[in-house]
Each structure stands twice: as C-alpha cells, then as structure tokens.
Amino acid sequence: MRQDRARSPDEAITRDVVLGRQAGEPAPDAVVCVADATNLRQVLRLVLELKRVGRPLILAVNMFDIARHRGLEIDLDALANALAIPVVPSVAVRKGGTLELMRKLDGLADVTSAPGSSDWTEPSTAEIRDAHREADRILQLAVRRSGRPAVWTARLDRVLLHPVAGVVILLAVLFLMFQAVFSWATPAMELIKDGFAWLGALVATTLPAGMLRSLIADGVIAGVGSVLVFLPQILILFTFIILLEDFGYMARAAFLMDRVMGGAGLHGRAFIPLLSSFACAIPGVMATRVIENRRDRLATILVAPLMTCSARIPVYTLIISAFVPQRTLAGVIDFQGLVMFGLYAAGILSALGVALVLKRVFWRGEVEPFLLELPNYKLPDPKNVVMGVVQRANIFLRRAGTIILAMMILIWFLSSVPGAPEGATEPAINYSIAGTVGHAIAPVLEPVGFNWQIAIALIPGLAAREVAVAALGTVYAISAGGDEAMRSTLAGTLAAQWSLPTALALLAWYIFAPQCAATLGVVRRETNSWRWPIFLFAYMITLAYLGAFMTFHGAHALGL
Amino acid sequence: MPFESAARLDADRPVVNLGNVSKGFRGRIVRVGGPDAGDLERRLLEIGFVEGAPVEVVYEGPVGRDPIAIRVNETVVALRRREANAILAEPAR
User: Fold this and answer.
1) Based on the number of CB atoms within 10 Å of its own CB, is A262 exposed (0-12), middle (13-18) or buried (19 or more)?
2) What's the gap in Å between the CA of A183 and the closest CA on chain B?
3) Mutate which of A140, A255, A256, A266 to disrupt the B interface (most B C-beta within 10 Å)?
4) Residue A127 vs residue B20, higher pLDDT
5) A430-463 confidence digits (pLDDT tens)
6) What is the pLDDT of residue A5?
7) For residue B44, what is the domain's CATH number?
8) Is the distance from CB of B86 to CB of A373 less than 8 angstroms?
9) How close A415 gets to chain B, by Cα (Å)?
10) Distance in angstroms (rounded) separating the CA atoms of residues A241 and A276
11) What range does the domain containing B79 cover?
C-alpha cells in the first residue's frame, strides 16, 4: 500500500480495509507496513500517518540486503525508537526472510488485541509538510550512511527513456507482445474450439431433438465456448502485462506515451488498457482500474471496444477473402493485408476521436494531472506473476459463467423461439423472434446496403462478433437450397450474392458495431451501472450506421 | 499558465518554475503549489515534492519534450510540464 488517499478504486479498498470501514471485512488486528529499505523517506511518511489510525503497527524493512549492498546503513533500533513501533528487517523473496516478522507479529497480536481509537482524517497540506519534516528528522537519526542511487535503473533508463531508442524499444516490446498473443495462443484456442464443438456434438447425439437439446448445444455450450476461446489470449496478454508492470516498465511506457494519449485527452495510463483491447475488450476494460481519475477511466472504458479485438478477425478475413482480390501492390504490399491494416487503423483513429469528443466536449474543464513515480527496476517474482495471471483468469471465467452466459441464453432464445413450423422450407432462424426482428429491421438497414440475410445474422451476432459468421452460414447455406450452394464455400456464396459496396459497408459496420454482449456485461460490472453500457451501445451503433452508410454510398459514387 | 506570475519569490534569489527548465537542471525546491494550485499542491506533496528537497530533471518525453522526469530526493517522478510549473526551485550553485 502506498498512500491513504483514495485515488483509484483499488486504492480506496485498501484504505477502507486498513481503517476497518470496508463492508464485510473485519478491522485488522495489526497493520504490517512493508517498506522498501532503499526508499525509506516515503515509507516513513506513510508510517507516521498509519500510526494515527490507531491499530497496532509493525514496520518491516524489506529489501534490506539490496540496501546494504548499495552501501546504505540503517540503524533499525534508532528507527524503532524514533517511531515507537517494532521494526524488523525482512527479505520477502527469500525463504525464512520473513521469520522474524512472523514472530514479532504473533507477539504483537497477544499484547495489544484491543484496537486503539482511530482519529484518521485526510491530512491537510500543512500536515503533509509536517510529516515530510518529521521523516527527514528520523532519517537523520536512523540512517548512518546514505547509499548510492540505483545504478542499474539509471543505466537502463538512459536507454529505455531515450527519445528515439526508448520509443523504438517500446514498439519492439509491443510487437513481441502481439506476436505472442496471436501466434502462441492459436493452438490452445483451436483446442478449446474443438473441445466445445465435440461437446456440442456429443449433446446433439445423446439428447433427443427439441428445445432442451438446442438450449444446451446451441445456447450454453456454443455461447460459453465462443467466449472461453479467448482465455489463452487473455492469459498470455496478462502474463506480459504483469511481467512488465512488476519489472517497472509500465510506468516508463506511460511516460513515453503520455503526450500521444494526451493529444486525445486520454491519460498516459490508458495506453495499456487500450493495448489489451486489441486481444479482447474484456481484459482491456478490466485493466482500466489502474486509472485514478473517474472520467479518465470512463473515457478509456468507452473507447476500448473500438480497438480491433480478435473476435473481429474471423468476420474481417471472411469478407476480405471473398471480396478483396489477392494481389500485391508494387510487388511487396499484400492488398488483402493492406485492407486489414486499414481496418485496424480505422479502429484506433476512431477510438482517439471519440475520446477527444468525450473529453473536450462533454467533460470539459479539469485536466487530471499526470503524476507517476518511476520505480527502480527489479526482477519480477514468478510467484507474484502467476498469482496475478490466475486472478485475472478467474475474473474472466466468473464473468463468462454468469452475466455472459445469461446473455448468450437470451440471444439463443431470440434466435430459436418460436421454432420452424412443419414442412418449413427456409432455415429455422427465419421463423424465430430474431428472424422476425431481422426482417422488420431490414428496411432500416437497406440504406446502408444490407440485405435481410445480413440483418438476421446480426442478431445472433450480438452475442459475439464471430457468431455472425456462423449465422450467415446458417442463413445462406440453407436458404440457397441446392447442393451446389452447399458445396461452395461461404466466401464464394457471399462473393456471388453481395455487391462490393455491401461488403465494404459491412466491414465499416464491424469497426464500430457493439456486437458483443460480453463487453457490455463487463462494462456494466466495472462502472456499476447500466447507464454506461447503454450509452456505449447507443453511440457505437450510431457510428456503425453512419460508417456503413457513408462507405456504401461512397463506394457506389466511386463506381465500385 | 496560472503559475507564471509567481516566477520570483525573493528579489535576490532567482527562482524558476520546474515546468520551464531543461534536462540536466539541478536545484532545490523553494515552493510547492500556490494560490491557484488547488488539489495539485496536495498531490505534489504526497508524491514527494516538498520545500527544501533537492531536485534534478533527469529525462524528457519524446514528443515536445513533455512530460519530464524529476528526481526528488531518492524518487524519480514523471509529470507534465504544466503540473511541474506549480513547483518553484532555485538552481544549484
């Protein structure tokens, strides 16, 4: 814990636990303040403030070995005397390094079990200045020899914060991260996809045909599978993020990117959540908790879904492979790749644009200060990294199991009720609520170049973007009838049935469209209100409609 | 810029706003905050900027040399120049 002022949601919880104000958490018996021996000054101020909370307090001076190595000599007895609390040295990363702390803690719990009175209030600026002076006085008493500054941190920063080399290295780190997220995750994702397909097939063969089978196979299994398939990417992404955070690099990345992000009215810390959103908006929205200011955090949450997440990739590749010719420009640039790049760029630019509008038009006024300590670099503790990744995975899985599952079942219900009548010739989805709604909204989508088949596919596609590909398959494969159409690939079918402007309009639609129930669910959780997911849905669908409209008519005007 | 008017506290000691100096500047803080600083004063104090503390500007951001990184005592803090302008420092001799 660093400070008692609650800036971000995480910090607010820490403060309330210490003060015994957190609902459902008993007031702590004792507080252990773990101090970095190489940066005692700041910790002393925290200790001085914690003393006023009135709970039994121990100061554990951590990284004592590193401090000694740097020539820093701390008189622990003098420190204990000056602070009037027990002080123990500890080396948390080593076995037995916390033994003495545990012994002292047991003793303390026996002696002072009655909690003292808490007269904590947020200190005034005068009080913070007093604490600074008091910390200085204690340092004079307890530190016999001041150490050398962290040599390695300064050496590394000279390169990593270099205006040119630093930016190049940052881009290289990001490139490696994306390579990892997209290529290393593929085998595991295939495995999960196949696993759920097998499970669905198993249910299909064991249960009698009917609503229950459809609910379990098409609703629950297919729905949860379509979300769980992103688990490998989320694990890899968070492993990278936590490694970089623990190493101390994230603060440097925020430093390098602050001006670029600030141009769009975003905070330097928004960089990582937005980056994560390229894999999936869910971990991106979850990662916004590090942003202190509420409006900065909301702005980041609201634009995160515009970053091109991996669920858009199946839709993009399907349409690109059907409509964009496979040729190279100037012999080197792959034309299909170029279109893909353009879609990514459009996502980034629109996210920055929306952030700008939010911060400059709706939330004018105060600019949140960018104040960030650049900590000394240190090797990440593997145990800590594993725990962090497991915790993120748990959050994701719990959501997939609750709100996301509920939305999947709702969308299944819309797509399969009522069932097809006897002797139906069209695919069952046409007779369902989704089919009815699809036909009803088809006139609305006509100006953007979408036919009724697309309108229908968009409704199950609300569950998750890539589901629309399967839904298009369902609508077309069967409504086209004959064996010939069944044999041809979906891409071939689409190329034959859609005009190029329609295809381009659908691509534009997918840059913006809020076609992901899971993201809306996670935004609801993180903002604790339905207001923001509703706002998110409304603004994204408006942009999607406008984007598709302009693309469709622009393409027509160009004679495509 | 709300802090520029206070560029001089004392006639015989030249003081500068930390937001206006370049990489390599070394000095000592003479004032944190001011009449217009509001909550920023508290936040600067909390992160370690306090009157009397030695400061050095150690890094500058890649775009427009903003933000900057300032070493204050043993801590290195990154902040934007407009926030650093709320800190007055006298250069080291």
Assistant:
1) buried
2) 31
3) A255
4) B20
5) 788 888 888 899 999 999 999 888 888 888 777 7
6) 44
7) 2.30.30.90
8) no
9) 51
10) 9
11) 14-91
Q: Does residue A91 carry a pLDDT above 70?
A: no
- Would you call B55 an interface residue with chain A, using a CB distance cutoff of 8 Å? no
Instruction: Report the domain count for chain B.
Output: 1
Distance CA A454, CA A446 (A): 10
Average pLDDT over residues A377-392: 90
Instruction: Name which of A125, A256, A262 is nearest B62 (Cβ-Cβ).
Output: A256
Q: How many residues does the structure list for chain B?
A: 93
pLDDT in tens, B26-81: 999 999 987 777 788 988 998 999 999 999 999 999 999 989 999 998 889 999 99
User: How far apart are the C-alpha atoms of A271 and A244, rounded to whole Å?
Assistant: 13
Helices (H) and strands (E) in chain B, counts: 2, 6
Residue of A nearest to B60 (CA): A163
Nearest partner of A551 among A399, A425, A402, A448, judged by Cα: A448
Q: Which of residues 207-266 of A touch B (CB under 8 A)?
A: 251, 254-256, 258-260, 262
B5 inside domain = no
pLDDT higher than 50, residue A487: no
Residue A541, pLDDT above cutoff 70: yes
Which CATH code of 3.40.50.410, 1.10.443.10, 3.40.50.300, 2.40.50.140 fits the domain covering A9-149? 3.40.50.300
Contacts of A167 in chain B (CB under 8 A): 62
DSSP of A35-74? EEGGGHHHHHHHHHHHHTT-S-EEEEEE-HHHHHHTT-EE
Q: What are φ and ψ of residue A155, in 5° steps?
A: -65, -45
Range with the lowest mean pLDDT among A44-53, A154-163, A194-203, B58-67? Answer: A44-53
Contacts of A39 in chain B (CB under 8 A): 74-75
Task: Say if strands A57-62 and A31-36 run parallel, antiparallel, or are unpaired.
Answer: parallel
The mean of the pLDDT values for chain A is 80
Q: Looking at the complex, does the CB of residue A353 fall below 8 Å from at least one CB of chain B?
A: no
Q: Which of A105, A96, A14 is nearest to A58 (CA)?
A: A105
Task: Please give, rounded to a whole number of angstroms, the shortest distance from the CA of A3 to a CA of chain B.
Answer: 8
Residue A121 in contact with partner chain B when CB distance is under 8 A:
no
Asked whether residue B8 is domain-assigned, the answer is no
Whole-structure pTM over 0.80, yes or no?
no
Q: How far is A6 from chain B (nearest CA, A)?
A: 12
